[in-house]
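Hallway conversation turned thread

IA: we were arguing at lunch whether anyone had actually written out Zinc metallopeptidase end to end. Turns out nobody had. So, for the record, here is the sequence (226 residues) and right after it the structure tokens. Reply here if something looks off.
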Amino acid sequence: MAFIIYFAIIILIPLFAQGKVKSTFNKYSKVASSTGMTGAQAARRILDDNGLYNVSVEEVQGHLSDHYDPRTKTVRLSTSNYHGHSLAGVAVAAHEVGHAIQDQQNYSFLRVRHALVPVANLGSNASWILIMIGIIASIPNLLLLGIVFMAAAVVFQLVTLPVEFNASSRAMNQVVSLGIIRNDEERDAKKVLNAAALTYVAAALVAVLELVRLVLMYTGMSRSND
């Protein structure tokens, strides 16, 4: 029964976070920003104000596929946010520019996250193969190796949290100080960014819970083999 409750929790947490993002974004994507600026215009305004003339703003296909690419110095905004005049679109665009500003200022957590990308990718791909073989074949050392790989991916998830929260904080400071949104719109813009951040919190929480469960499983397996 405990396992059923546990798996229900780790499934419901991400679903709740994703639902919160969708409902919040859908709500404020129907609210026009007071300045009438598109997401692309807001992004360009913030970039130029921070001297980031070398960072381009491009449209990308998909829904909420917005991201900043540090390799090409490009802020990519989904079609609705790129062309739209909504408060949600402006908030998301500003958030992605926040990452560009982090990149410019060599924000420490962003550098650490970039350094962890290859390790996290390897950990995500290899961990569950080793874990499943270790569990099925009752080989504690193989399970432990899988846990080590998984731990690298969990560290990446945890480092992502300050990166995302900091980008949102920078975004709010920029849109308010530059007059891209009015003071009375600030609360609603924060709701959009907080909902988006919730997905990262949920992912990190689930990853930590899974890691703890596997460590306990390894401990039990090791004792039974003694």
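OS: looked through it. The chain has a mean pLDDT of 92.
IA: good, adding that to the notes. The first strand starts at residue 56 and ends at 60.
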